[in-house]
Structures are given as structure tokens and as C-alpha cells.
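Worked Example 4.2. Read the sequence first, then its C-alpha cells.
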Amino acid sequence: MAIVVRPSEAVHRFGNDVYLRIGSSNRRASPEEVATLYAERGGLRFDEAVRRDLGMDILSPVLVRKFVSLAVERGRMPQEVANWEYTQVLRALRAAFGSPTNAGVLTFSEDPARYISGADVRVVVWGGEGRVVDDKWFSAPLWMLVPQVVDYLYRGPLKIGWKVKGGTRRELPTIPVEALREAVVNAVVHRNYLAPGRTLIQVMPEKVTVENPGGFPPGVTPDMPFSKPRNPVLADLMYRVGMVEEVGSGIKRMRKVCQASGITFRFEEWALGITRVSFSRGSNDLEAKVIRMLSQGPLPTSALLKEVGVSRPTLLEILRSLEKRGVVKAVGRTRDRRYQLL
């Protein structure tokens, strides 16, 4: 006899409890987790909710005009929309109906975090010795927020380097721009705004992580991604200005560009409360440890051996692999040879 239990988008209880499947184990959900489950699976659409507590004056007509102009330029809104009345545009975009919707606040208010908790993005940059070297907060309309965050990352912590190939120099970002931008877009568009917390980006010597409150929508997994936005109005608004696509192809594109750049891309954690993706310069924990050590300056193999805890042949194999992928390089003669990050 075969018993088939099909996936369900409802929240199910066993007695008075709700259980979660995390990895290979089960555990009882906390009251906060139960509330999050109902928010994610109970059909509550945060972005569609009309904010009767807010006036239309918090939305910026200037931002609406800029948004429409960009959407028309990208061919995702008809030209005649530019001549519509301000309120007509907001209704058509489901951004306001007498009062702003949450999607309207996130898109057309100059400081969304003032009205929606957790609408800002935090970027923490860690040094090789485990201390915070920079900690910044960003709050802006989402379609302007993503470029601000990505621009900061690539002008600072992930600044573009140079690689010589075939006698010419070309720019080579530490992490592919397209992949990291897609991760930031996903984090702010598809996050669960009903759950506490905010989008957090952490930059470490060996990897970059992007995390946001909320797991994948029911039925969607990293291995089987498809378009099922948690915030459909917000996703539509970001689509119109070219920030997202209609089909769930983002994860596939991220994997493809990372593979071509020698970057390991993976979902480090996928549970009820949080989704986290990482872009690692190392393909395993040992490589990551070597990169963290070299982030503090060039080191000889003797110093690396003391800390990494592997045999000399294993360490040399790790260094050769990192050299081949353009992560480290050896400088100096054999006796004085040191390894440094590119």
C-alpha cells in the first residue's frame, strides 16, 4: 500500500502544535514561527495592504515621474502613461488607493524604513582578524536602493581589480556583479516583511552572504526555482524598471555566472525564518580559512601550516587550486616564497 501525501500550502497542526522539518530533523515551532508560517502560507499579502494610517503626502510625485520615465524607456509601460494624472498612475500600479499601499511606500516614499520596519538594508564588512571595519545602513525606494547598495559594494569592499590577459588589462570584480545584484534584488523583493528582521549583507575576506527574513514560498526550492513571488505587486513594480524578470530564472543565472568566475554559490541556510545565499572565493572550508589568513597580508607556507592544520602536500594542493582560479599568487623565490591574495 502506498500512502501519498501531497505538498500543502496550508498550516497544519498535530494536536495544539505545529512542527517544522529542518534538515533531517523535526522540532516544535515557536509561537513566533507559527505566526510567520501563517503570514507566509495563509494568503496575507503585505505589499497589497492599504495603509490607512498614512497620507498620500508621504509619496513623492518626483519619484513617480522618474519611475514612469524609466519604465517607459525599458518598454515595460506604454508611452501614454507619462501623460496620466499622478493618482491614476498610482492606482494602475497598485501603489495607492486613496492611501498608499505598502508596495507604494516601498517604491515611492523617500525613506521607506521610516514607515515599514526592516525596510532598510544593512551592510557589515569584516576584516580578516574578525573585527568590523565598516557598518552601513541604506534606506531608499527599493528600485533605487539596490543600485546604491551594489555601487557601494563595488566601489569599496568589493572594489574592482585588474587582471592582465593577452597583454591587455580588464576589470575583474571579486564577485560577479550580475549575481550579487540578483541576490540583493531577491532579498528585498521576496522577503517576508511581516517577519522581524532586515536584509543583511556581510562581506568577509573569503565570502559574501546576503540574507533576508522568510524562507522560500511553498513549493519553491533552490533546486526547483520558479516564479511565485511572495509580494506580487512589489515584484511587478521592480519588473517595470528592469530590476527583476517575470520568470524564475534568477537562481540559474547566478549559478551560471558564478561557475564561469570560479566563485562557489550556494544556499548556506534554508529554514523557516531566514534565507541566506553565499558567494565564496573558496570551494571548501579549508580554502576559506587560507583566504581569511591571507587577507591580513602575505604569509609563507610555514605560517599557514600552523593555523590550517593540514599536511604540507595538502596545503600546497589548496594553494595551487587557489592560484589556478586567480585567488592567490606566490611571490618571491622558493626559500622566501610567500602567498598573497590577488
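Now turn to a second chain, presented in exactly the same format:
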Amino acid sequence: MAGTGQHCVFCEIVAGKEHAYRVFESEHALAILDIQPFAEGHCLVLSKRHVQFWHDLSEAESAGLFEAAHRVAARLRRALSPDFVCMYARGRRIPHTHIFLIPSYSGDLLDRFFNVLELVQESPDRLVAIKQREALEGTARLLREAD
């Protein structure tokens, strides 16, 4: 975050000024082990450029970030044999784009979390309303026309 007067730990890691357990690097991304892991192998894939949210990256940066995530997920699958690798993008708590890659197994914390979320998706009236055909058609139209 040059010139902002703010400290970004991910920028420091990308620059090599802070220690991290690096597992993959490319032109636009750096993958490291999370030091507060939810599971063994929990990785963070960082944008090399300081951008808070992934959807504000350039097309090349976004492609590079997700290509790195894909490669690291394949490594996680080969090395740890999880049932699946959970992926989600962040940038809120640490305002620097990063993708969580978390190996997950049946019954673990993430599996239980998503099972609870699925129950929430199926129950509240507000969510029921947005699942109706008219609502889905309206939302799809809004997104198609948002260019």
C-alpha cells in the first residue's frame, strides 16, 4: 500500500518483508499457508497487487489469481485427499484480495457450517420469496442488463 501510510501484512508478505509459508507463486498471485488454519493445508491465495476485493482486479489479475487457486487446490487434493477443497474470496477483515482454500472432509467444521447454511437457505420466508420463478427471472434480467 505504497503512499497510503497504512500497513498491509499481505503486501509485506508479497514483497518478502514478512515471513510466510509459501506454497505457490505466479505473476499475479502468491499462495501461502494460513497461520490461523481451519484445517491442515488451509491456504490463502493473495493478489500480488493491493486491491481490496477480487472483483476490482484487472481481468489478467483475476485470471491469474483463480488459476493459482486452481493449481493449489489440485496440490491440496493430491497431498491431503480431502473430500473437496472449499474456496471463497475475502478482502473485508484484511482489506487485500485473498482466496481461502480449505481442505474439507465429511463432518468437519466446514462441512457442518455449510450444512447449517443449507438449512438456512431452505427456511426463511425472505429466501423462499427470492427462489420463486418470477423473482429468479427478475434477478437474472437485472444481472444481464447491468453492463
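Notes for the reader: Residues 1-105 form a domain with the HIT family, subunit A fold (CATH 3.30.428.10). The chain has a mean pLDDT of 89.
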